[in-house]
Amino acid sequence: MKKLSLLFLIGIILTQCKNHINSSDIELHLTGFPDSAMLYLTNAETGLTDSAYVINNHLTFNVDIDEPTRFIINTPAKTRSEVDFIVFWKESNKVTIYAEKGNLKEGKVNGSKTHQLYTNLNKKLSKFEKLSDSLWLVYKSLPPDSTALLKRIEKEGNAINDSIIKVQINYIKNNPYELYSFILLRNLMIEELERHQVEDLYQNLVSDLKKTKIAKDIERFIQTKYYAEIGKPAINFTLPDIKGNPITLDSLKGKVVLLDFWSSNCGPCLLEIPHLKNLYKEFNPKGFEIVGISMDKNKDAWIKTVNMYNITWPTVSDLKSVYGKVALEYGVNFYPTYYIIDRDGKVIDKVLGRGIVEEKIRKIFE
Questions:
Q1: What is the C-alpha to C-alpha distance for residues 344 and 194, in angstroms, rounded to an integer?
Q2: Considering 197, 234, 318, 364, which has the largest number of Cβ atoms within 10 A of its Cβ?
Q3: CA gap 23, 171 in Å, rounded
Q4: Is residue 229 part of a domain?
Q5: What is the pLDDT of residues 211-237, one digit of tens each?
Q6: 93 inside domain
Q7: Is the full-model pTM beyond 0.85?
Q8: 56, exposed or middle or buried, with CB in 10 Å at 0-12, 13-18, 19+?
Q9: Does one domain contain both 244 and 360?
């Protein structure tokens, strides 16, 4: 799946809580960087990026956030392997980072309670991640016909993943008063846990923090009753387009509809746009419609991308990313994700990733 992974976020670049938004600084004290060296800052929630230049080994970013948010600071690079980066959490107060060139990820982050909790938990998980990395290296080195060994490695990998999840669940159970427990639960719920598990863990968390946006994301997941399935009627929805006009899926019955779950900061999604344009131009007169459902949390980024790529089919969003009602009902945790809906409003296919949709649509119309 997209997994919404750290490396994915870095790849596209190469390319406690309060009820109001606070503007505050991320201040970096650096060693080894020349003057005018550029660094990028990415908000991992919204995908928004900023850049600034190093002057006298010092650099400052200013950000507006209202809840703990994960950020990435990285150097420019042509490939992922060349990227020097640090991942950190920040609340609404000032954060200071001390780091050196070539080893940003080992930088010291001061001023963030969430980051300290994140770091402490990662230390407990590091032994499992090292085992997982070692297994992955072995897995990649094996020839495709090593079936038995590949299955054994996959089994061991799954066991390691289960151990990681167990540590995280125990943390949530043992720390009901920490907002970081809510963050962990939200991360786990999309891929790793059943709804009843999420509900049980959520009920144990302190009620004072259940007014936060993170908590509301979890509640929306728990309350989601239906999931789109192949062979069954598509789940109807109404979402606003970039001008605020409501678009309702059921109004498109009688057409073949492609639901395209995408994001402005998703490289593979953007690469697929020219192919979707070709399909739209050829088959729209024959009863084909595309509805792009943006997973962006930032409206400006969504609108800018629609205009930049001159997307002419309807694009809609609730600006809640994978935690929105529609994304949850359609089980979206990867971009791009496509659903093909026939003229009767029934789901006939689900496609993950790029490069396959065009062939499937052509088969329908040929």
A1: 31
A2: 234
A3: 30
A4: no
A5: 999 999 999 999 887 788 999 999 999
A6: yes
A7: no
A8: exposed
A9: yes
